[in-house]
Amino acid sequence: MATAQAFHYRMPRRVAGQRPGSHRGSSLGAGQEFVSHANLYDRPDPRRLDLRASVRSLSREWLVRVSRQRAGVTVQAVVDVSASMAFGAHTPKLQVAADFVEALAFSTFRAGDALGMVAFDATERADLFVPAMLNRGMGEVMSRLIRQCRTAPGSVAGLEQAVARLAPRSGLVFLMSDFHWSLDRLGPVVDALAHNFVVPMIIWDQAEIEPPAQDAIAALDDSESGTSRTLWIRPLLRARWRDNVANRKRELDRFFAARSMRPFYVTGAFGADAMSEYFFEVNA
Q1: How far is Cα 185 from Cα 177, in angstroms, rounded to an integer?
Q2: Looking at the predicted structure, is the pLDDT value of residue 16 above 80?
Q3: Cβ of 41: how many Cβ atoms within 10 Å?
């Protein structure tokens, strides 16, 4: 992307933490969300003295306002860099992921959140690991690592290793992949992230989900296994193609819905407005 597209996001639940930020926090402190009054001697902060409440108090005590403070979170980008992510009729899916990471870095910096990245193919990619930090230039660094990385066949085992590197504290996790693997082993991995708010980002290319419009002989290569097949594209095959895509989408929707997660689908270029709308809806 020529210019990073910022989007708006907020955690849909209260977050713990003492570092100031833009999310609703669970800790008491300096903030605008009023909770209750407390005795000045219990919470000695004269700056929060509420004279009207003190005058009305039957116990004739000096009362201070107690508020909840807004807090920052740690955001993690978990990126699938397996061979299938290098596919794309016009733009490789890996480049779409890189564009999103750049927009994510710009957005997290504006929100005051730390951002980190882990990546995987068949194993966790230590060469692409970036520890969580609050840094204005992290977007360019992360996106460059993704755009220039070598790809290899992937598996859920790599995701298992990548997730194990994440800190056990809660935060926001963007899980980016085309999810072209069996979901049998994915359940325990996603369940291990239950203390986070997880956004599964399913990145597909239009050429994957929509068959060629004309009857033709097509040579197809499997990016992961390297095998090739020659198919005669005809109306019956096009119908089966679309049915398989629809079935896979329903399967993924059911899988994540069972874990109270809502996937975000990206087909083609990443749209910041669509991501902002996603968070508006989950926070509604």
Answers
A1: 15
A2: no
A3: 9
Written as one letter, the residue type at 239 is A
d(Cα 142, Cα 157) in Å, to the nearest integer?
A: 23
Q: Which token pair is 225? A: 């296994």
Six token digits for residue 159: 């995701």
Distance, CA of 96 to CA of 119 (rounded, Å): 15
CB 68 within 8 A of CB 27: yes
Q: DSSP letter for 67, please.
A: E
Burial bucket for residue 58 (CB in 10 Å: 0-12, 13-18, 19+): exposed
Domains and CATH numbers, the chain: 32-68 (no CATH), 74-282 (3.40.50)
pLDDT in tens, 39-86: 888 888 888 888 888 888 888 889 888 878 888 899 999 999 999 999
DSSP string, 10-60: --SS-B--SSEEEEPBSSEESSSEEEEEEETTTS--GGGB-HHHHHH-TT-
Q: How many CB atoms lie within 10 A of CB 167?
A: 12
Pairing of strands 114-120, 33-39: unpaired
